[in-house]
Amino acid sequence: MSSVVFNHVTKYFGENKAVNDAHFSIEEGEFFTLLGPSGCGKTTLLRTIAGFYRNEEGDIYFGDRVINDVPTHERNIGMVFQNYAIFPHLSVFDNVAYGLRARKMGKKEIETKVMEALEMVELSHLRDRIPSNMSGGQQQRIALARAIVIRPALLLMDEPLSNLDAKLRVKMRTDIRQLQKELNITTIYVTHDQEEALAVSDRIAVLNEGVIQQIATPQQIYQYPHNRFVANFIGTSNFVEGSCEKDPDSSEHAGIIQLLGTTRKLSLHKPYEGKVVFAIRPEQVHLSGEPASNHTVQGTVKSVSFLGDKVSYLITLPDGSVMDVHDYPGKSQHLFREKQSLFLDIQLERTVMYDSTGQEVIYHAGEA
Amino acid sequence: MLARPNPAGAPTVKQRLLLTRWDFWTFVTFCVYIFMLAFIVYPLVSLFFNSFVSKDGGFTLQNYLNFFKVKYYHQALLNSFLVSSLATVLAILIGTPLAYIATRYDIKFKGLMRLMVIMSLLSPPFIGAYSWILLMGNNGFITKFIRELGIQIPSIYGWHGIVIVFALQFYPHIFLYVSGALKTIDTSLEEASESLGMTAWRRLRTVTLPLIFPTLSAGALMVFMASFADFGTPMLLGQGYKVLPILAYEQFVSEMGGNPAMASTLSVIMIFFSTIILFSQRYFVSRKNYSMTGMRTPVVKKLKPMPKVLLTVLVFIPASISILPQLTVLVTSFLAKSGPVFHRGFSLDSYKEIFFRVPKAILNTYSYSVLSIIIMVIAGMLIAYLLVRRKNKLTAFIDGIVMIPYIMPGTVLGISLIIAFNKPPIVLTGTWVILVIAYVVRKIPYTIRSSTAVLHQLDRSVEEASVSLGVPPMKTFFKTTGRLMAPGVMSGAILSWITTINELSSTLVLYYGATATISVTIYSEVFTSNYGTGAALASILTLTTLVSLLIANKLSGSRGLSL
Ligand SMILES: Nc1ncnc2c1ncn2[C@@H]1O[C@H](COP(=O)(O)OP(=O)(O)OP(=O)(O)O)[C@@H](O)[C@H]1O
Ligand SMILES: [Mg+2]
């Protein structure tokens, strides 16, 4: 019953579609993340699921039940808010017990369940404290305990970690993921932090301006971004324009690519001719002092940043554009210096190629 | 799963309405509308129509024509404007310097001074006027004392007396508003001006005063409106000098040839001018509103002992003068007497007499006020919630309408309620219900204001968390938001409460023998020269006010007195 289905759901604010024709489903027990830039409609979508907003079009299903008109308090959800939303007038224990009391549970049962939940978030020693001047991390863990103790059919979290410091964020996200797996609660998680999304999710939905751009596993999203927006938003991509024409000698799916003065062949997903855009990840380029093959491109080092495990170079190409390249030098290897001239070997078969608008994938490695 | 074609374009208003979920708050909105329509809009409309009714029941413009033709009527309007304007100017002259000194220098006994100022604002009705008669009337203590020194001074009677009493009772509005503004002003602006070589005085004139102007004018508006609507003071001190509220009251209740239609006309005219004044203040302020971030709030200047004593004495002069009436009343209430005549020495005679003669009035005041304040607090919090958390076109309308009684003089509100409810479908005149309605309608704005202010500071997600945990909206309100609001609501509720127990002008129009309250009893005692009993009753009100303020202060830290 804990799957969630969206059937062409649209939510308006005035004339604007804050959520535009959302049409997908979330599996039972899944950790599903909504990811996108600020103002793209993540919160709106989440609040529509919670029932704080009413979708004007389409239907939302919990299992096979339409819940469009079910008020929030009857949806059996747990929610964790960005600013914790702890009840300031209640003790830690009473905060966590709040939802159980609403369910008219017996005293004994409440006691055991609350303590169990507090132990899960490692807060049982603070049960009688008033939460108002506890740390952000502690408050967020109370909020988490309060949401899971009722064993909700659906756990909703809106940027729950964004007010915490970086270290704590990493620990908390691991804890949340662990708990979610243990309890097998279907979870919808909102964040604008892609690293967080990639680290914890079963699947990610990338949103832009109310429209879902792609829904896929973290790996798929990173390796095969469906369009230029996703490629740009997830990780770093260098967008390089080239052109593509039909290969007269070969099957209809082969294309001849012109890119930065080199010519190569790729086997396309579909026939295409005209301008194309490549999304090239920084790690999909090899650097060397000498030309390694006949399709290397010459460039000049603009800047060098040493990042410990890798080195990030900004390299100026002959056409004046700048490319971000990551290199993983071995122990003995020298770093390239600024203004040094070098050669780039772009591993084109690993990249993704879009049509000129960046909306459609023409080529990517592996299966379609 | 069916894929449904997407209708193009945003949904219409009707579609949206159909999608709205009906919950507790829809129900509250509905109830508030019923209440407003019945007790604010309907009386107002009745009043308006009544002002066009001729003697034989037909339509006429004669009342309005009479107003402009007959000097007796329109002179009252001019009189009202004159005393209110002069009182406002005088109040500004007293209140502003007082506020400046009290916020910027570390004078002594600040808390006591504030309490005195607030008490004089919240004094029972026309106690000021009545005490000044005792002190400076033709046979007043002070008048006699000065006469014995061989100096002739004019008595307190007449328009100048009204102006002085108004100013002394209402300058606390200026004091409170300006203190607030001076505390949050961004001092770096003043420092910038100082660094540019401005002298202290010019700095005050070119930077500080313009910055506090919007707040000052809001305070001035309060003084003007209070003076414009006041009934008791001109009644006692006027001696034939008529202002509009008196005229309306007289037309309404006069035994010989009262004219309710003319009373309505005068009421409509009063509302009209109050509204104009209100909107012109808003208009001026909207063009001069400087939003201040209050980056650095001013420090309180430490003073050397001598200047400190001097300034302390200086601020205590107006504060003491304005509290003098209540002290006079308190002393008078303990004077020994036989019948209405005072003897030497002190006794509890006056108190014994009131508990014997008018216990009902005391009981009435407290029972009506307690009932009213309970309604006001609950309704005020619910309405505030609608205004802040359920913002939409319907609730925006509520915001406008509940504030209407704010600009209606009490006399006018009373007259409008009588005109609306002295005939079927609903007859309420002569009952205590109509008094409670009048109190609630007239005093609830204070509670709503403070409630909306706290709600704006409360985090909305707390109640959403509660709803998401399975607690329905109404229960959520009482378990979370309502409870968290309570301390902040109190600062306004205390004002509603104090002004309700002291309410005179609307009660005077609406009461009926058995429903007399303390304030109307004071009024009749003073008019029948029973000064001792009047003073004892007034002292009871003063004491209640003082105790309420102190309790509020205790409960909510310093907020209770900040109003
Ligand atoms: N209550 C509202 N009324 C009108 N417009 C709104 C409302 N809430 C959000 N919007 C608009 O809807 C769009 C989506 O907002 P939403 O809060 O869902 O974004 P978000 O993805 O959560 O952003 P963020 O990462 O900043 O939280 C924005 O353009 C926003 O301005
Ligand atoms: Mg958001």
From TrEMBL, chain A:
The keyword rRNA-binding does not apply. GO terms for cellular component: ATP-binding cassette (ABC) transporter complex, substrate-binding subunit-containing. It comes from the Bacteria. GO terms for molecular function: ABC-type transporter activity; ATP binding; ATP hydrolysis activity. Residues 4-234 form the ABC transporter domain. Gene3D superfamilies: 2.40.50.100, Nucleic acid-binding proteins, P-loop containing nucleotide triphosphate hydrolases. Pfam families: ABC_tran, TOBE_2. Keywords: ATP-binding, Cell membrane, Membrane, Nucleotide-binding, Translocase, Transport. This is Polyamine ABC transporter ATP-binding protein. It comes from Paenibacillus campinasensis.
TrEMBL record, chain B:
The chain crosses the membrane at residues 24-45, 81-103, 115-136, 156-178, 207-229, 261-279, 309-336, 366-388, 400-419, 425-441, 484-511, 531-552. It comes from the Bacteria. It is found in: Cell inner membrane; Cell membrane. Its main location: membrane. GO terms for biological process: transmembrane transport. The keyword Protein biosynthesis does not apply. One of its GO terms (cellular component) is plasma membrane. Keywords: Cell inner membrane, Cell membrane, Membrane, Transmembrane, Transmembrane helix, Transport. Residues 77-281, 362-552 form the ABC transmembrane type-1 domain. Signal peptide: none annotated. It is a multi-pass membrane protein. CDD domains: TM_PBP2. The keyword Metal-binding does not apply. Belongs to the binding-protein-dependent transport system permease family. This is ABC transporter permease subunit. The lineage of its organism: Bacteria, Bacillati, Bacillota, Bacilli, Bacillales.
